[in-house]
Design brief:
Elements (H helix, E strand, L loop, with lengths): L1 E3 L2 H11 L6 E3 L4 E2 H8 L14 E5 L8 H11 L7 E5 L5 H10 L6 E5 L5 H4 L4 E4 L8 H8 L4 E4 L5 H4 L6 E3 L4 H13 L1 H13 L9 E3 L8 E3 L11 E4 L2 E4 L15
Parallel strand pairs: 1-2, 4-5, 4-7, 5-6, 7-8, 8-9
Antiparallel strand pairs: 3-11, 10-11, 12-13
Helix pairs in contact: 3-8
Length: 265
């Protein structure tokens, strides 16, 4: 038996490697919610996470795969509309200097930081206005799951594979890959509307509760705590979002998802 964390990976294994589909199973990665709650409660290492202005966070190796150049372009398109907004990109990699050069050319270098990697990114992610997965491709993005479990609204590219399967049940905003304008549109909608942010944050956070159809608990095993396994279905279009060419895009950002208490900033 061959186990993959995403259905798209099963399809690829069948198409490219000739694996027998009947011998393959999908078991998505999980999130340790108890550990995550403790990490969220810690003091964040970055001072921007303690400020009141809009904060966008991304995380991953600084390489072309992660699409941080696209995120910088998207952030540059909304920077004038949100003069207090800041962007933190967590991670290390060979693209750090080119990304800093790009930020400088876009005139946003003073509002973007590349602090490297730290043992507890969740203390920052949980205080962000939005988490962005800008990848060109993935296997199964754990960072997206963890941001959802942190209660942070998420924007993700519709890259292969994982995000479309994870962001079902109104759990986040899905935008096309290689499309900074669509990413900017999604960020603009989130940063301009606290109710919309609250709706998306609640959708992702409530998906990690064992009393909803969006997620389920895996029984604890010896030496482990409860973990949440995400739903594995196709992304659906919630209110205020329309489907265009098979992807989800903001339609009317003034129509929020159902608001939940404790909306993020």
């Amino acid at each position: 038996m061959i186990v993959c964390p995403a259905r798209a990976m099963v399809d690829d294994s069948v198409s490219f490697y000739g694996c027998a589909r009947e011998k393959m199973r999908v078991i998505p990665n999980g999130v340790d919610l108890e550990t995550l709650e403790g990490m969220k409660a810690e003091l964040p290492f970055h001072p921007w996470a303690l400020e009141s202005g809009p904060l966008v966070v991304a995380a991953g190796r600084l390489c072309r795969q992660k699409g941080f150049d696209l995120l910088l372009e998207a952030f540059g398109r909304i920077a004038r509309e949100f003069p207090a907004a800041r962007l933190i990109i967590l991670g290390k990699g060979e693209e750090r200097d080119p990304l800093r050069t790009l930020a400088d050319s876009l005139g946003i270098s003073a509002r973007v930081d590349f602090p490297g990697w730290f043992p507890n990114p969740h203390a920052v992610i949980s205080r962000a206005s939005a988490f962005v997965l800008s990848s060109r491709y993935e296997g199964f993005p754990n960072a997206l799951l963890e941001a959802m479990a942190c209660g942070t609204p998420v924007v993700s590219t519709d890259c292969p594979s994982g995000p479309r399967e994870i962001l079902e049940d109104e759990a986040g905003l899905l935008v096309p890959t290689e499309d900074p304008e669509a990413m900017a549109e999604a960020l603009r909608a989130l940063l301009s509307d606290p109710l919309l942010r609250g709706g998306w944050a609640g959708a992702g956070r409530h998906g990690s509760r064992n009393d909803t159809p969006s997620g389920r608990w895996c029984p604890p095993t010896r030496g482990s705590s409860k973990r949440w396994w995400p739903p594995m279905g196709w992304a659906c279009a919630p209110r205020g979002i329309r489907r265009r060419s098979g992807v989800l895009r903001p339609n009317n950002p003034k129509i929020p998802c159902p608001a939940v208490p404790g909306s993020p900033r």
